[in-house]
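Box S2. Input/output pair 1.
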Amino acid sequence: MKGKLTDLLHTFNGISLDELSRAPLMNRVDEKFAFPIAKLEAFLDEMRPYYDVLNIDGKVIFDYTSQYFDNATYSFFHDHHKAIPNRFKVRIRTYLDSNKSFLEVKEKIKGRTDKNRINIDGFTSDFTDDHRLFLMDRLRKNMDLQPVMVNSYRRITLVNKLVEERLTIDFDIVNGTLDAPNCKKQTLSSVVIAELKQPKLDRTSPFYQLMKRELVRPFRISKFCFGMIDLYDDENRLKANRFKAKKLLIQKLIKNSSHAPRPQTRF
């Protein structure tokens, strides 16, 4: 799959990291879509006239891994579960191809996403004073955070040729912990999560129109939340009943996808 996708993406116009800054979108609106991985190649082929692809020294598919944090009562997870309009996500994201890591705070504010980040050496369970000050400033309170999960995935990044719009496409999603990097359940392993990022919602986007034609509706889905459910739901640590309909939809997508082997962990 990765080889075929790479060949296809090399037919796109490639852009550099510097050129990617034409659509930084650190403050934005997001629309997410989930579909079977078997459809990815055909969807990409249709998007070629409208989007450029991030290409760094010939590499067009990039490996990411993230370490997520929460407190002892899983406040971040439960805020997502209750769909609280103003909520947070804290993670360390590592770009495996460049070996760069950032401590990130994503704040959802009435439908908009505001992301801030600072450099960090890599995954950790003990923040430095500078990192604690950053977290205090962004979260606006002191929280006793601890690592709760890690995940890894592959990402393709497309940028609209004409307007400020970025499309990220994540697949081969694996979740677990540092001690057990490939947990028993892998709900998202055969699913693609595409995220359309715009200054404000524009349904005339070529990708949005493609999803509409293919009857793929916008779908609020979080790799963090689904990973947490895979890890902890059997232990009754989480209240996740409101995600039941989303879990059923993912199961339906998996049934409709090709039965690819489970991806191997990369963190």
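Box S3. Input/output pair 2.
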Amino acid sequence: MTLSLRRAQLADASALPAVERSAAALFRNDPELSWLADAPVTGVEQHQRDIDSAEVWVIEAAEGLIVGFLSAYTVDTELHIQEVSVSSGFQGQGLGRRLMQTALEHARSSGLTALTLTTFRELPWNEVFYRRFGFETLPFSSLDQRLKAVLEAEIAHGLPGARRCAMRYRIEP
């Protein structure tokens, strides 16, 4: 099957909630986090705003089917990854890695110094995946105000704080 990676277009926004919902099915494998498989996902309107004002890439399969996406935004000299999702039927094929590599190449060519993100600790498709990509898990005590605020907002929305972490990938000049 031919898969293409490209910048998202506004018309893609309607497909992204289904991709996110499908990707979240993995959380059923963790009893403490299984509720996330049925939790609300980002709505079409927010995806449209992100496509319009941030950095969003999609992976498209045959007949225009969107099977993965990455959404990020620039803060100062860092690109913050806010979401990476790959539909369950397409996971394990390196698509998440392709999306991350695209974000990294964009950050490098834009002269940015790092990629950042927040994620779940100790899950193979979260913290472990990003460590293999080259991200470093940051101790809470060393976080800047922005990353602390992101984690605190996630906790306020019901995510278990003990399971969350912030990570950074430093881009070599």
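Caption for Box S3: The beta strands are 4-7, 55-60, 66-75, 78-86, 114-120, 136-138, 164-170. The first strand starts at residue 4 and ends at 7.
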